[in-house]
Amino acid sequence: MGIHVTKEKVKVKYVVGEGSIVETVSTTLNVPSNKPFIERVLDVTPELTAPVSATVGEDGIIEFDNNNGGQISLGVTYVAAEQDPPQPVHYFSSADTGEYINLSDLTKTITILDAEPGMDVEVNVDFVKVDYEAMASDTALDQVMVELTIKVTVKVIDHKEFEIITGIEGLDPSSIMTENLLVEDIVSEESYHRQSRDNILEIDEEVERVLKVDGAIIKTKEPEINGDVVTVKGEFQVRVLYVAGGSDQPVHVATGTFEITENITVPELSEDNQVYVDLTLKDWTYELSSTNGGQQIEVDAMVQINITVTELKDITVVTGVDCKKIEIETELLRVDEIIEDKTITHTFTATADVPPEKPEIKTGGILEADINYLAFDCEAEENEVKIFGTYNTGVMYIANQTIDDNINPVHYFHNTINYTKYINVPGAKPGMKCDVDVKVKRVTGRKVAVDQVRLSITLQKDIRVTDLKELEIITDIIEVSSVVDEPDCEQPAKIVYIVQPGDTLYKIACRYKTTIEALAQYNNIANPDYIEVGQKIIIPRKIIGDCKG
Questions:
Q1: What is the share, in percent, of the chain residues with pLDDT greater than 90?
Q2: Where are the beta strands (DSSP E) in 266-360?
Q3: Which residue in 177, 187, 192, 314 is a FRET match for 549, CA 20 to 30 A apart?
């Protein structure tokens, strides 16, 4: 028949499976001793301490790591019962007192069939509903009862390589079914180990004995790329359990957060590549030493840095062939198809108001304006994406007042501003996954009133919308030999076939309309699952018949 196929190797993040649970948990928060009692609770806001880390356990059960983001803290904003001094609105976080909700304590479990230990796990946590009520332990309101409904969704990923048929020549084009896919092709995956040294944890008391030292990565920042050098940044936290000196020898806990910065050369890295970084704290050592005011623990951490480099690839996938002269082999492909991957820049204005307790702004007194906190998310809607969140603006200015020697004091204030914007994304639909990374490019401020500043803000948004695609793709075509269609008298007594790369005994049997058993028996093949390239397979005319595999 003279069929020629074009193949392309693609390594993708294969989606093994997805699962989710919804659960309501209850907890009681205590107002810190340095805070006033509660008159009325205004808001309770849940927050993840860091991106959640999870692994695949036995039987596909997802296990959450408490030490690496598997914790949720709760922030409470309330009106204080005490109005003197006049600061009626107060805030405290359960993280200040170590009161967390742990994902590993959830009673429901997520099981992903076919998931195996070592596969990657992506976790998304949504806070569905928050109910709260101020309560009194004695006579004053000093506790907050919280019921938090959490939805946890996981996706298990395996990095899998496919040899995909992208074109067929020699057949009627109308018999070939294709589909276009835009996917991330994994160009390289490398793992590095780096030692983070001289991380000092100060302890202002005598340490009798260190009981335990552990830690975890709590933040992985966006990698910086300069040529073929990737700058990796992150933070890890160390927790030390120790026995304090003294007659009663109480057990205390000390924690410290340290930064990681490493420059790693990645050969042949181009500006078209996407770079993903994952940090894991593998091991650590420590040394206890004395100082003038107490003692210190020097921690050396071994950090594993996994760098994955990808590039966008637009491929045509053959999904079906309507032809009786060939046999096909298929494989299930489950990947996140990229609907849109774009970067946009948005410049807009916002107003920042000077708090009442702050002095007025001197004319020309704006020294600096910045944004010191960003929290953004996005949702896919019909042919568009909604980007929403909050950011904190900070303004440093010269006050319109004088102190000693006629010096104008410098003041600083910040405002929290809500943000919503819709971006046109053709092909987007509700339910698709949306990711956004927002960076501040420029912030300027000018005085428009004695107590008001007009800010000009430029944000860069990297938006990606993906949709889980599930396709049966053709990975191989077996052409049925024309010799079996010739008249019986014209068929040779036997055919000698030379095994080619990619051949199996099943493929050869189908090609000549016979069976695996017949070929194995005639050629004395002990293991039908194993044949070698270059091996001769004899196919006598008497065993040519129907292909039964």
A1: 41
A2: 274-290, 295-321, 326-353
A3: 177
User: How many angstroms separate the CA atoms of 151 and 132, rounded?
Assistant: 18
Provide the token pair at 22. Answer: 């919804």
Q: Which domains occur in the chain, in start order?
A: 11-159 (no CATH), 186-311 (no CATH), 338-468 (no CATH), 483-543 (3.10.350.10)
Listing DSSP states for 498-512 in one string gives: E--TT--HHHHHHHT
pLDDT at 523 over 60: yes
Q: How distant, in Å, are the alpha carbons of 191, 255, 290 from that of 237?
A: 22, 7, 22
DSSP 457-511: EEEEEEEEEEEEEEEEEEEEEEEPPGGGGS-GGGS-SEEEEE--TT--HHHHHHH
Which three-class secondary structure state does DSSP give residue 403? coil
Collapsed DSSP state (helix, strand, coil) of residue 97:
helix
- Residue 275 in contact with residue 307, Cβ under 8 Å? yes
Q: Is the peptide bond before 85 cis (omega within 30 degrees of 0)?
A: yes
Read off the pLDDT of residues 169-182 as tens digits, 9 standing for 90 and up: 888 888 889 999 99
Instruction: Identify residue 11 by its one-letter amino acid code.
Output: K
Phi/psi region, residue 155 (left: phi>0; alpha: psi -120 to 50; beta: rest), is beta
Amino acid present at 215: G
Provide the 8-state DSSP code for 108.
Answer: S
